[in-house]
């Protein structure tokens, strides 16, 4: 659903740019609370994994394909604020290096694919987790539903933006029907990928899944023959992971998986246009589409310039993309995590003078 330049007019693009910048600023502050010793090492990896899986277009209807948006997955794994940053990093790398998603439309894409998907998915996910049984399976089910709904929600958001600032005169009802209809189908694929990934992580390291925290049951005491909640034992506290447990094995597994998906499996992805591209071509939304400012990038269209073999060119571009994204994402989240540490540095008191130092 990467919106290219020319679909949305300049004033609307500028406003969404301001909205996106504000959301990223808020997310940077919110991520300080989310990026603890468990989520911080994984946030950059989540961004790289989303980049890799977005290269795997899957067929959803005749002549149409879809791909992961990733907002739901990121929010559930590392938290909603960090999730917005993860998807934003991916969109920035795609726009600059691979000419995927217009540069003037970056605000539109971040608003649509990072903010809307993450907010809608995480709000629905938290609501479902509260009413479902407190089990790991419930987290997986809630992940599926949240991801499924987040995709047509993003399609609806694009439709509203097009209604406000579209550059072609197309009946909004036709756009809405086409966009939401095809993206409901794409949402099924998004839901399956999200649920499988969350389920796989929660099966081996539930302590690393942000959305699974608080599944521990309250400590019970027997009083006069009845079991009651022990005082001072809130059910929101996750079971602590052993200090010796390392994130390294999961991190390496996730990185290798991302590299294989982007470097090898992506060659077998569907070549059909994705949902937005198909609707734009069918309805005439793309009549005023503009060439990407970085169309001559050495990595444009997910291929390496001057490499004739399509398999090698695409695979190498995917590997480069995963590497750049994990480095850029990790740098951002490391800086945010370090800022949290600076903000949280405790003050000490000089006992001889009673002053804080």
From TrEMBL:
PANTHER family: METAL TRANSPORT PROTEIN HI_1621-RELATED (PTHR34229:SF1). One of its GO terms (biological process) is transition metal ion transport. It comes from Streptomyces parvulus. Residues 248-338 form the PDGLE domain. One of its GO terms (cellular component) is plasma membrane. It comes from the Bacteria. Pfam families: CbiM, PDGLE. The chain crosses the membrane at residues 7-28, 40-60, 72-98, 110-129, 141-164, 176-204, 250-269, 316-336. It is found in: Cell membrane. The keyword NAD does not apply. This is Cobalt ABC transporter permease.
């Amino acid at each position: 659903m990467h919106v290219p330049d020319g679909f949305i007019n300049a004033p609307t693009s500028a406003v969404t740019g301001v909205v996106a910048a504000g959301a990223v600023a808020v997310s940077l502050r919110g991520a300080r609370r989310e990026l603890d010793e468990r989520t911080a090492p994984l946030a950059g990896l989540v961004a790289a994994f989303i980049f890799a899986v977005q290269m795997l277009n899957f067929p959803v209807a005749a002549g149409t394909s879809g791909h992961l948006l990733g907002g739901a997955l990121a929010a559930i794994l590392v938290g909603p604020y960090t999730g917005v940053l993860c998807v934003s990093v991916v969109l920035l790398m795609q726009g600059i290096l691979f000419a995927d998603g217009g540069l003037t439309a970056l605000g539109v894409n971040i608003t649509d694919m990072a903010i809307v998907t993450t907010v809608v998915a995480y709000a629905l996910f938290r609501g479902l987790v509260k009413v479902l049984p407190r089990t790991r399976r419930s987290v997986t089910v809630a992940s599926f539903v949240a991801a499924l709904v987040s995709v047509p929600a993003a399609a609806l958001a694009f439709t509203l933006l097009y209604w406000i600032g579209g550059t072609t005169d197309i009946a909004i009802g036709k756009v809405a029907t086409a966009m939401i209809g095809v993206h409901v189908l794409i949402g099924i694929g998004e839901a399956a990928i999200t649920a499988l990934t969350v389920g796989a992580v929660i099966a081996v390291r539930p302590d690393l899944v942000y959305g699974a925290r608080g599944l521990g049951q309250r400590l019970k005491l027997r009083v006069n023959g009845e079991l009651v909640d022990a005082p001072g034992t809130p059910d929101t506290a996750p079971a602590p992971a052993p200090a010796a447990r390392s994130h390294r094995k999961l991190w390496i597994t996730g990185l290798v998986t991302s590299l294989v998906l982007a470097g090898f499996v992506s060659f077998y992805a569907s070549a059909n246009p994705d949902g937005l591209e198909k609707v734009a071509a069918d309805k005439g939304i793309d009549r005023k589409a503009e060439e990407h400012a970085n169309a001559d990038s050495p990595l444009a269209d997910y291929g390496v310039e001057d490499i004739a073999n399509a398999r090698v060119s695409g695979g190498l571009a995917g590997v480069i993309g995963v590497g750049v994204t994990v480095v850029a994402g990790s740098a951002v989240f490391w800086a945010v995590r370090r800022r949290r540490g600076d903000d949280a540095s405790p003050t000490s008191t000089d006992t001889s003078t009673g002053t804080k130092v």
